[in-house]
């Protein structure tokens, strides 16, 4: 066989070869690919000339493949399979057949609110899907751009080129005391609020929250008795102390069944906030990624405020 550029080779000849390999009969092979018997015979002559081999030899038992033809069966069948899958209309998406891992970047707040329900849905609808959750380190946008993470959940101060986002839910801040706290049944005034010792959830272990910024505009400060990197432990600390925690309300919905709490509106105006999911534009139309985003959106709609 002489070396030939692919552009000079009639790829339809491969379909004729496939039909002959399956049928071992020129008439049936011609019918299989929608050609006349003479056209199929002409295709076979071209194949023989190209490969420098008889490929299929007529016998009383039908067309018997040569050793060269047998060597071509597997690689040509695989090549045609790939071509068909590439050019044919995509099959309907079936989450139950999806087998892959998704990496999600988020802090424990979104984990508490969304992941238990999300995993319940995945276990039921897509048991072949696994999820890896990672704490964001540095710029979440960079991790999406690099492909290190599939999705990021959080607050987004601004849009970024090549990234898409979808708002999932809004939340508000509440102030929480243990049910037996001396001030549990009293109105939480500003004076009483700043007199208490506070728990602050700060993933980086430093800095202030928006509550501190609002208090500063009023000429007030508060005493932070404990800084924690995660929300999960904070309600348990509140249940054992006379501290107060100001945190997103959905954290209490997720953890409030552990202990009884007294929940108050903060005595300062703390703005509500929204949590969004963010992804790279390259995944906009990827079926598995689209499906996962839809599941997160549905879980967010189902979750109670």
Structure commentary:
Helix content is 41%, strand content 22%. It is built from eleven helices and twelve strands. The mean pLDDT is 89. A five-stranded mixed β-sheet has the order 4-3-5-12-6. It has a five-stranded mixed β-sheet with strand order 9-8-10-7-11. It folds into three domains: 6-87, Arc Repressor Mutant, subunit A (Orthogonal Bundle); 97-169 and 275-302, D-Maltodextrin-Binding Protein, domain 2, CATH 3.40.190.10; 173-264, Periplasmic binding protein-like II (D-Maltodextrin-Binding Protein, domain 2, 3-Layer(aba) Sandwich), CATH 3.40.190.10. The protein has helices at residues 12-23, 26-33, 37-51, 67-87, 108-125, 140-146, 190-195, 210-217, 234-240, 249-255, 287-302, and strands spanning 56-59, 62-65, 100-105, 129-134, 151-154, 163-171, 173-178, 197-201, 223-228, 244-248, 261-264, 273-280. Helix 5 (108-125) links the parallel strand 3 and strand 4.
Shape type: rod-shaped
The SSE string, one letter per element, is HHHEEHEHEHEEEHEHEHEHEEH
Give the CATH topology of the largest domain: D-Maltodextrin-Binding Protein, domain 2
Assigned CATH architecture of the largest domain: 3-Layer(aba) Sandwich
CATH H-level homologous superfamily name of the largest domain: Periplasmic binding protein-like II
CATH class of the largest domain: Alpha Beta
- Count of individual domains: 3
The largest pleated sheet is described as:
5 strands, mixed
Average pLDDT value? Answer: 89
Sequence of strands across the biggest β-sheet:
4-3-5-12-6
